[in-house]
């Protein structure tokens, strides 16, 4: 468990006394889940395994541009609350990759 690996915070507080770190929490206790994935199957697995109750937790995903079309049906059905596709291309000169985020649905 996290509390066994990190028994104290930076302020020397016991981590087991902090809300959310004392043990397992149901997924519905979170307002949202953000999935960052390079494969659509990773997002699909989360959608299929997480049981949403009254729209909680909202599931958001950031994926590569190739995965986005395969996940659009989940956005249309409401199972995926938000989807953003990243399109990266290398610049001609050496340096960091240039990325453009394209939101497919804003909620």
How does this model look, in words?
The chain has 107 residues and is of the alpha/beta class. Helices cover 22% and strands 26% of the residues. The protein contains three helices and four strands; from the N terminus they run αβαβαββ. A four-stranded mixed β-sheet has the order 1-2-3-4, covered by helices on one side. β3 (82-89) and β4 form a beta hairpin. α2 packs parallel to α3 (68-77). The protein is elongated and about 45 Å long. The chain starts with a helix and ends with a strand.
Structural topology:
Elements: H1 2-5, E1 32-36, H2 40-49, E2 58-64, H3 68-77, E3 82-89, E4 98-105
Parallel strand pairs: 1-2, 2-3
Antiparallel strand pairs: 3-4
Helix pairs in contact: 2-3
Defining traits:
3 helices, alpha/beta
What would you say about this model in short?
The chain is an alpha/beta fold and 107 residues long.
The 3D shape can be described as elongated
Radius of gyration based on Cα positions: 18 Å
Summarize the main sheet. Answer: 4 strands, mixed
Relative strand content: 25-35%
Counting DSSP E segments of at least 2 residues, the number of strands comes to: 4
List unreliable stretches of 5+ residues. Answer: none
Q: Order of SSEs, N→C?
A: HEHEHEE
Strands in their spatial order, largest beta sheet: 1-2-3-4
Structural class: alpha/beta
Average of the residue pLDDT scores: 78
């Amino acid at each position: 468990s996290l509390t066994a690996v990190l028994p104290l915070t930076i302020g020397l507080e016991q981590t087991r006394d902090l809300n959310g770190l004392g043990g397992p929490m149901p997924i519905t206790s979170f307002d949202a889940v953000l999935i960052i994935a390079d494969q659509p199957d990773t997002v699909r697995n989360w959608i299929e395994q997480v049981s949403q109750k009254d729209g909680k937790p909202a599931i958001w995903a950031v994926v590569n541009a190739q995965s986005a079309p395969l996940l659009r049906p989940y956005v249309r059905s409401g199972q995926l609350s938000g989807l953003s596709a990243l399109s990266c291309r290398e610049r001609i000169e050496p340096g960091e990759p240039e990325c453009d985020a394209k939101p497919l649905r804003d909620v």
